[in-house]
Specification:
8-stranded parallel sheet, 12 helices, TIM Barrel, binds zinc ion, alpha/beta, globular
Length: 318
């Protein structure tokens, strides 16, 4: 049994060095890292942990704290190039264990396309991880369409993953809700923005993976469909639920019944393995968790753990 994890984060070693040396890094002052010691681990230390977890391949992404979409576009583009070169080096040093998702400066669509092109077409990375929003804008804004078109052409995959504050945060900062509920709210808004903004119709081959099981997209789509039924979404030819199977979703639901619903609504070929390594909200023993789910067939477990990811990323196993 193989396993390929689309949701696993990296902190650039160059950032860690700057932090330890008290130096400025691409215009930002590095702050002490979160509580997880794994954030400072070398690729070799990661691989040991992956072995203990039964994870064969991580599709590594520099963490969401490195989006910096509010910063100067050229400075952030240089920061992202350094992040991406480091992830690329992991894929060169350990080609059997790592693939890479890029950081791209979304505040400047031309620069974002250029970096995505460099990462995918020159460095062999599989796509990019991006936030649910860019300085308050959602992805139905026409200014982003050239990026979706370019990505579609390249066959690049986007992993959609919140950064900074979610929509819940202005309401409450209590009880970890900006994360536990907020991530899922943000993902539902992103699903709706891509669908209702016509992006999925304009880009039929665009590959979008919604992290955290797509959040409330599946659970909430009936109400979105109702708004289509009563004529509030005249711009799309089908109800929103018809677009569920156009997206990919990681399995990071922390709930078997929610994962079962996701499979039943989006299709088993759309659910991929994602763990959120190494953060505290990750799935503990993720391979064992999937293998132990009683409501999934063996074929469904294999599809989630590796077969769907191989197809999505064009990886051939021998
Ligand atoms: Zn994550």
């Amino acid at each position: 049994m193989r396993s390929i994890d689309i949701h696993a984060h990296v902190t650039p070693q160059s950032y860690i060095s700057a932090m330890k040396g008290g130096q400025v890094w691409h215009g930002v002052q590095p702050e002490p890292l979160d509580i997880e010691p794994q954030l400072e681990w070398t690729p070799e230390q990661r691989i040991k942990d992956m072995d203990s977890l039964g994870v064969d391949v991580q599709v590594a992404s520099t963490g969401a704290q490195f989006y910096y979409y509010g910063g100067d576009a050229q400075a952030v583009a240089a920061m992202h190039r350094e992040c991406n070169d480091e992830v690329h080096q992991m894929t060169i040093d350990h080609p059997e264990r790592f693939r890479g998702l890029a950081q791209i400066p979304m505040q400047d669509v031309d620069l974002a396309i250029a970096e995505l092109d460099r990462c995918v077409n020159q460095l062999g990375m599989v796509g990019a991880m991006i936030d649910d929003k860019v300085n308050g804008k959602t992805f139905d804004e026409p200014e982003f369409l050239p990026l979706w078109k370019a990505a579609e052409q390249m066959g690049a995959v986007f992993l959609i993953h919140q950064g900074g504050g979610t929509l819940v945060r202005p309401r409450t900062r209590s009880y970890h809700l900006p994360n536990t509920i907020g991530n899922l709210v943000d993902r539902a808004v992103t699903f709706a923005s891509f669908v209702m903004g016509g992006v999925m119709d304009a880009c039929p081959d665009l590959k979008i993976c919604l992290a955290h099981g797509g959040g409330y997209a599946c659970y909430g789509v009936g109400r979105m469909d109702r708004s289509w039924d009563v004529g509030r979404l005249p711009q799309i030819p089908q109800p929103p639920s018809a677009y569920l199977s156009r997206f990919y979703y990681d399995c990071l639901t922390h709930s078997e019944s929610a994962l079962r619903m996701l499979i039943d609504m989006a299709g088993i070929d759309k659910v991929v393995f994602g763990t959120d390594w190494p953060f505290d909200m990750q799935i503990d023993w993720p391979v064992s968790w999937v293998l132990g789910l009683e409501s999934l067939t063996q074929d469904e477990k294999e599809a989630i753990l590796w077969k769907n990811m191989e197809k999505l990323l064009g990886i051939t196993s021998d």
